[in-house]
Amino acid sequence: MRDIEHDTDDASPYECFDCGTVVVRTDPPGDCPDCAGRMRNRRTPLE
Ligand SMILES: [Zn+2]
């Protein structure tokens, strides 16, 4: 068992700002695979 607050081994869903494409990755994808737009981690609060 590991006690890590930010579990980087766990995949997170990333959503494209522009087209809404969601990809599940363990690391930030950077650009959208569909439109090369910016991705955000859906687990991260928007505020
Ligand atoms: Zn996109």
From TrEMBL:
This is Rubrerythrin-like domain-containing protein. InterPro entries: DUF7129. It holds the Pfam family DUF7129. Residues 8-42 form the DUF7129 domain. It comes from the Archaea. It comes from Salinirubrum litoreum.
